[in-house]
Structures are given as C-alpha cells and as structure tokens.
Amino acid sequence: MDNMNLNKHISGQFNTELESVRNQVLVMGGMVEQQLTDAIAAIHDQDLEAARKIVANDHKVNAMEVAIDEECTRIIAKRQPTASDLRLVMAIIKTITDLERIGDVADKIARMLTKNANKPQPPLVSLENMGRRTIKMLHDVLDAFARMDLDAALAVYKEDDKVDKEYESIIRELMTYMMEDPRTIPQVLNVLWAARAIERVGDRCQHICEYIVYYVKGKDVRHTKADELTILLGKE
Questions:
Q1: Cα–Cα–Cα angle for 40, 44, 127, rounded to 5 degrees
Q2: CB 134 within 8 A of CB 160
Q3: Does any domain span residue 219?
C-alpha cells in the first residue's frame, strides 16, 4: 500500500480492506492475462482442447468481477471514503469492468474456434504478433496499476498506436484475400472479427491507464490522445 501512496487511516481495518481489494484486482488481472494468452495461442495453433478450457474457465473471471464490485460497494457504504480513497475505489470498479471485457475477448475467440470445430482452418493471416503485443500491454498495465506508476501507465498508453497500425495492416491483407477469392469471405469475416476483438484489448488497457491517472492526479483524461496526455502529465 505504501507504494501506492495511500493515505494512512485511523482505522487500520480500512487500510486492510483497501489492500485486500487491490490484491483481488491483481489476481483477477492475472487470470485474464492467462486466458488471453491461451486464446491467442489456441487460435494460432487451432487448438480446440485449449479453446474448450478457456470457455470453461470464463465463469471464474466473471465471479471475481462480481465479488470485487460487491466489496467496493460495501466499502463505499460502510467507510464513506473521500478524496483519493474514493478515487481508488472508483478506479478499481472501472478497472475490473475492463478486465472482465478482456476476459470476454478470450472467451469469444475460444467459442469461435469450437463453433468451427468441424471445419478447422488456419487463420489467413497471423494474429499472433498483435496478440502478443496486447498481452504485454495488459501485463504492463497491471504492473503499473499495482504501483500506481504514471510513467509506466503512459508508456502502455502509447503502445496502443502500434496495435492500431498492426490491425490496419491485417485488415488490408484480409481485404485482398476477399477480392482475389470470394470463397474466402466466411473465413475472412471470422479472422476479421478476432482481429478486431484483439485490437480492442489495447483500448481496454488504455482505459486502465486513464484510471491510474485519475487516481494519482485526480484528473479525468478519458478520450485524450497520447501526445496530449504526455503534455498534460508533464512527461515531454
């Protein structure tokens, strides 16, 4: 907790509660990171068994979101936190929402694989590189969240531009397949959907960066471009 520069409270129990809920977020984040890692590997390897395990484990992520959300609601009702403490609780609530949606990406990719189990086809283009980049973004933003590190959060925020460029490149490649051979359209649409879902993981990681800024600086920086955020935080 000291690393997060949290206020000291007369109630040691309050500190314990904040520490506990923060740790739960990191546990949930680790679960989501593993789910996403497995999903990217499964789509690359066309591993149906791995895909089924991802689908089977999705409820664990959902259950953690509900549990953490309920704990945050209890803290607000019982402790009535103010200032930075309230910002922390709100940042946690928003963060677990984005983590759950990243978990949904892994689940949906896995379900797409199992749905097409009777006609397995390797992706027309590789999504592995973009997938690995988003996995690293998620790992790094969770680390930034653990330390409430503005510099680390800003670095992750800027990485999304690279994800976007890879996504655009994949779209162009897929469009070429469709134009050259209309028979590939069904397969292209599946790959296109998966690519879009992975690209959205980068956006979710950016959101978590924004929540870190909100907690540390007390500023709402949603919908801010990377260069504008750099100037705003004085990190030029």
A1: 70
A2: no
A3: yes
Contacts of residue 213, Cβ cutoff 8 Å, sequence gap at least 6: 150, 153, 219, 221, 229, 233
pTM: 0.90
Indicate whether 3 belongs to any domain: no
Residue 199 in any domain: the answer is yes
Q: How many Cβ atoms are within 10 Å of 118's Cβ, its own excluded?
A: 5
What are the Cα distances from residue 226, in Å, to 131, 155, 160, 168?
21, 9, 9, 19
Whether 1 is covered by a domain: the verdict is no
Q: What CATH number does the domain containing 99 carry?
A: 1.20.58.220
Domain range for 16 is: 12-233
Task: Name the domain count of the chain.
Answer: 1
Structure confidence by residue, pLDDT tens digits, 42-88: 988 889 999 999 999 999 999 999 999 999 999 999 988 888 899 99
Q: What is the dihedral of CA 201, 207, 208, 214, to 10 degrees?
A: 180
Average pLDDT of the chain, as a whole number: 90
